[in-house]
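Notebook B, p. 112. Complex prediction, attempt 2.
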Amino acid sequence: MDAVYPMGRENILMVPGPTNVPERVLKAMVRPLISHRGPEFRELYGRLLENLKKVFQTGGDVYPLTASGTGGVECALGNLVSPGEPVITVHFGLFGERMREAVVRLGGRPVEVASEWGEAPSLEQVKEALDLNPEARLITIVYNETSTGVAWRMLPELGRLARSRDKILVVDAVSALAGEPLPVDQWNIDVCVAGSQKCLACPPGLSLISVNERAYQALRENKHRLFYFDLEAHRRFAERKETPFTPAVPLFYALDEALQLLFEEGLENRIKRHAACAQAFYEAFDRVGLETISKGSLRSNTLIAVWNPPRVDGDEMRRMAKEGFGVVIGGGAGKLKGKSFRIGSMGMVSLREVSLTLRAVFESLKKLNFSFKEKPERVLEEVEGKLEEALRKLPKLRLS
Amino acid sequence: MDAVYPMGRENILMVPGPTNVPERVLKAMVRPLISHRGPEFRELYGRLLENLKKVFQTGGDVYPLTASGTGGVECALGNLVSPGEPVITVHFGLFGERMREAVVRLGGRPVEVASEWGEAPSLEQVKEALDLNPEARLITIVYNETSTGVAWRMLPELGRLARSRDKILVVDAVSALAGEPLPVDQWNIDVCVAGSQKCLACPPGLSLISVNERAYQALRENKHRLFYFDLEAHRRFAERKETPFTPAVPLFYALDEALQLLFEEGLENRIKRHAACAQAFYEAFDRVGLETISKGSLRSNTLIAVWNPPRVDGDEMRRMAKEGFGVVIGGGAGKLKGKSFRIGSMGMVSLREVSLTLRAVFESLKKLNFSFKEKPERVLEEVEGKLEEALRKLPKLRLS
């Protein structure tokens, strides 16, 4: 697959979202506007609702919200959390802590199941919290922690546990959907939130939220609901293929096109492509002696977080990568700011992006006197060869 | 001014938003994406923050939110309303009732100052409510009621009253900004909410919210704040020209371009253009015997709401206007559904749009056997002549 970027692009974005948006998706936004109370919109929205179900692999509903990922998280929690109620909040990084904070804002009482950043809590810890707080109705967790590059791989087990205890499982999968496996129904996830600007390679501005019947029932019992983010209103209006409030029509056009592209590739293939690209980064960094924050099976398919090497200024490295190579890399998030850098390997990433990024990182680190464990040129060549091999099995895509 | 529409447009949108977006604004969305934590975004956002202050005529802050107008209203109220507190809610249509409903959802206790739809409460009614509820801190009102075409023309007086009683005045000006006079500071408005997709002629998906120091102080005292819509977080991040959460970058590009276009025209001129177009509609409808919902000085510059004539199916008229003339007109809202139609005369409206719309309405009504009080051809000719004369004094615009 060759990457084709829109006119005028100078930099490639390897930040944790927004990601590089293919030309055909960008161009879709320029279609003339339509009334969101007319037949043209109902056709578009109806198709989006059906297609999003396929991406989430759910028989429940999935709504695109005019809001970014955090708005989607607020929607999920605002519909479900009642003042005073205990909520099991599983967290191990900045975005998990944000979910916890949103619970607090809504008047909920978080029961924290936490670990150090870069690690992840065990299922046993969740069980203990549930045992000690039988009145808790909700469990919240971030699937793929964008601050540390940790993907929590026990979601299937957590889903079974939640279902067996009759709890509602709310998953922030903003940076995971279409980059990590996520069969929402099979894994017993009741509410799942994703973003448009990550692995779907759509522009930022939309959040996607899935809701099943169990979640609808739970939120109906909750009197303290939001207005703009009211999921029952979304359900009511979706019956006639409309949104309760004015939608960001150009972004809906873009999402429609991005989903077409996703189906042309195939959801499984897209996840494989993300895994292959991430694998290339991990192998390259391991071999030259750069330490990633997440280890082993916790390593994310979509976000590679790396400790700044001793005596190397990571922010300076990022500046050099951007100015010298046009590669924009993310800085550390939250308390890892100034201590790490983050590569968002999401959306339309392929050989070109991985190669350019590795070259940019290695060349910049050379100038900053990083002492490479293995010769970077050889590592790059071998990693590129393997990635090329892996990608050869995947479909070629039409991006423009 | 000649209207130039983007490629492929078939219909002109005369609904209460979204409005017709000029080609140059649509095209701005196709610029390559940028990281919202990088210098390119900070330059864009810094410019937006400054330019929005000019449009709101305020020394306070104005934030573009990734959400539509109702999201902006929820932001305003969610930051300010504490559970149990009385809130003076002035309402006279669907959108005012929505503000009231949002207050209820947030746990506030609305003190209703209401009138029949199509009319408007008096300032005296507000005073009485304030006298009876001295502990109320907030007054909410919709400036331009999109469901009835009523513009509440006593905002300056209401602002003085609110300030003299030390109340916080929250105004929903979603369909008014840049179409009706709205000097936020001069009128003592503490929080003002607008939308991107109305008179600014930008695509839908952004809400704009102004906040002054009095409002910041009031919301700091409120413990029950939202997360995604947290105005203090917006203020904190704005110091370094960033948004707290991922913004809808393509819509920010579009807004930037739409504001440039607004400044080329001049805010005063844009309001004059809206007034002239609305005047043409009102004169034409009065003369042929179509009854508008709002009367006299309550008539809005941007939304013309009309009762369906006796024995005429307004929805059928709208269908004919769309199919025969490519003119999309809005239906009645809320309890006026099936009883009225609504023309959104906002954004890039000019002679062409007004003429086409009037022609579409008149020709369709002819086929539906409406009995015209005055000959529609003559009315059309004279109204067009006057509008042309009025528009001649206004600047020509570059729309593509």
